[in-house]
Amino acid sequence: MSDEGPAAELPLAGGRTTSGVVRVGDTVRRPVRAWTASVHAVLRHLEQAGLDGVPRVLGLDDDGREVLTYLEGDTVGDALPWPGWVTSDAVLADVGRWLRRLHDATADFVPAPGSVWFAARGWEPGLVVGHHDAAPYNAVCRNGHLVGFVDWDGAGPSSREFDLAYAALTWVPLLAPGSAWPVAVPAPAEAHRRLHLLLDAYGYDGDRSAAGRAVGARARRGAEVTRQLADGGDPVFAALRGQADDLDRAAQRAEEQPPSFWQPSGG
Question: What is the predicted pLDDT for the residue at 1?
Answer without folding.
Answer: 37
